[in-house]
Design a protein that fits this description.
seven-stranded parallel β-sheet, Alpha/beta knot, globular, alpha/beta
């Protein structure tokens, strides 16, 4: 018998992970970020940018998870990351760079909380935040395309992080 959200026996759990999105502005992507933040037990979702759409399109994709996920909206991703770093968070940016490491080979520390930074749908994580990052990680890909949708990449990253923190 297929189970649904009323009869699954998944154990509810929150991990010491804050997800910071830098200028992710597509309503469907934001709704999906709420959904995966709930699914992976993210402590908090921080949406950064000038125009964060929290309307009907976002709510349709989030399936009401915006009502249960702790979140805030900040204008500056850089100030948000600087604040988290000063509070002892390890700053992990999800971005392909000349110095990034494959996420599947990285060992996440259980000693410090994690701030996972994801970037703009078109431009990724900004250079200023990359400079502040303790680590920059990427997802190995094997096709011709050098990027994937920000939500799909975040799903993979949160799966890897929570798998290690269990």
């Amino acid at each position: 018998m297929q189970l649904n959200h009323y009869n699954t026996n998944f154990k509810k759990r929150t991990f010491p992970v804050i997800l910071v999105s830098e200028n992710v502005t597509n309503a469907a992507n934001i709704g999906s970020l709420f959904r995966i933040s709930d699914a992976f037990g993210v402590e908090k979702l921080i949406l950064c940018g000038e125009l964060i759409p929290l309307g009907r399109k976002m709510a349709k994709t989030s399936r009401a998870t915006e009502k249960v996920v702790d979140y805030e909206i900040n204008h500056s991703a850089l100030e948000t990351v600087e604040s988290l770093k000063s509070k002892g968070f390890q700053i992990i940016s999800l971005e392909i760079t000349s110095k990034s490491k494959p996420i599947h080979s990285f060992i996440f520390s259980k000693e410090k909380p994690i701030a996972l930074i994801i970037g703009d749908e078109n431009f990724g994580v900004s250079e200023d935040i990359l400079k502040l990052s303790d680590e920059t990680l990427h997802i190995d890909m094997f096709g011709q395309n050098s990027s994937m949708n920000v939500v799909q990449a975040t799903n993979i990253a949160l799966f890897e992080i929570t798998k290690q923190l269990l």
